[in-house]
Amino acid sequence: MAGTIHVDAIDLATQRSRKFLNLFATPLSIAEYLSGLVLSSIATSAVALAVMLVLATTAFGLSFFVYGLMLVPFLLVLFLFGIALGIVGSAVVLRLAPAAEWFIWPIPALISPFAAAFYPLSRLPGWMQYVARLLPPSYVFESMRAIIAGGAVLGRGLAVGGGLDVLCILLACWFFTRIYWHAVRTGLIARYSAESLS
Fold first, then answer.
1. How far apart are CA 192 and CA 189, in angstroms?
2. What is the reported pLDDT for 22?
3. Is 15 exposed, middle or buried (CB count within 10 Å of its CB: 0-12, 13-18, 19+)?
4. Alpha-carbon separation of residue 177 from 83, 87, 88, 171, 182 (angstroms)
5. What does each C-alpha distance from 82 to 18, 30, 89, 166 come to in angstroms?
6. How many domains does the structure of the chain reveal?
7. How far apart are CA 124 and CA 108, in angstroms?
8. At 167, is the pLDDT very low, low, confident or very high (cuts 50, 70, 90)?
């Protein structure tokens, strides 16, 4: 029984890696591949967001709908930053093989203290504030704090966060493209199959 499960796992890994190799053997462009990743992420994230909103509303009585359409730009800035992180994560896995997934999962936890998610930006040490100002989520959380405190929407902060999002996505796409062409030139894509079986 255990031997059968092990063989089935190897067969599944082989099929997955062959599909990956076949994908890059097609005339699919890098932009099309990244667009597919983003669209599949949008679908799964939309489902997860809907479930979380329902749970937060029913279980804890938190109604995010009182903010109405004001939530849309905040969620958009956070979502675009998540797309940039996802593209970077995909590039790292492409470069280091599937075993590098353990390196990707902690990245959001490492970024969250700098994103001012738990504490206001003013409470962070000076060096952390400089790093936080480079991250789009910090502008979202600071603006949300201002709204909850009864202040006005900080449009300038959201604009800066959106601009940083665009820059992050462009840098992430550049990084993925460099890793992809390095993997093609050095044969890493072919080794991807062998490493996924070990």
1. 5
2. 63
3. exposed
4. 15, 10, 10, 10, 8
5. 28, 19, 10, 12
6. 1
7. 18
8. very high
Give pLDDT tens digits for 134-160: 999 999 888 888 877 776 666 788 889
84 contacts 165 by C-beta, under 8 angstroms: yes
* Across 62-80, average pLDDT: 78
DSSP class per residue in 92-110: HHHHH-GGGHHHHTTHHHH
Regarding pTM above 0.85, the answer is no
For 100, the domain range is: 2-197
Please give the mean pLDDT across all residues of the chain: 78
Comparing CA positions, the residue from 24, 45, 46 lying closest to residue 33 is 24
Longest dimension (CA), the chain: 63
| Nearest residue to 176 (alpha-carbon basis) of 20, 1, 9, 30 | 30
